[in-house]
Amino acid sequence: MPTAQQNYDAANQHIADPEIWLLEFWQEGSSTIERIALNTEDIVSNGNTYPKGNFVVSFPNSGDQPPRVNVTLSNINYTIGRAVHGSNGRIQCKLIIVAGDDYDDIIDETGDLFVIGNVEVNYKTATGETSAKADPQMPVPFRAATEKFMTGLSLK
After folding, report:
1. pLDDT of residue 46
2. pLDDT attached to residue 47
3. pLDDT tens figures, 57-74
4. Which of 25, 37, 80, 107 is an S-S bond match for 50, by CB 3.0 to 4.6 Å?
């Protein structure tokens, strides 16, 4: 069992090259992507600018419920709040982790597999619950079954 001094030393180690978390979110079907970097300064990663900001990702306890991750974002400049309130469809999100010494070096990313639901916005924060894009409990906006969206229905 580690001693109190070993625990203290482990907790106070300096991280030479920390990872930086980037968050992207957008309304499904929209080309406008909002970006934020969990950092003290704006960064550019793979040609995209991520303004500095603050967000907290809270992971759920294990259990029998579908896994959901809570995300709380700073809404100080109202960018997040305007984007959420202007949305008329599902809001998709992607979390990207990049190396602190090379912002173009993607260590990991979630892909376009998650949506944010149950969003609450106030003057300070926007809080939402992420879930898998295919979660049957999340509402899906209506879309007409046209040949453009459901090519399998066309028998030409």
Report:
1. 96
2. 96
3. 776 666 666 666 778 877
4. 37
What is the DSSP secondary-structure string of the chain? ---HHHHHHHHT---SS-EEEEEEEEETT-S--EEEEEBSS-EEETTEEE-EE-EEEEPPPPSSSPP-EEEEEE-TTSHHHHHHHT-SS-EEEEEEEEETTEEEEEEEE--S-EEEEEEEE-SSEEEEEEEETT-TTS--------TTT-GGG---
Query: Was domain 18-153 assigned CATH 3.40.1350?
Result: no
Low-confidence stretches of the chain (pLDDT < 50) are 149-156
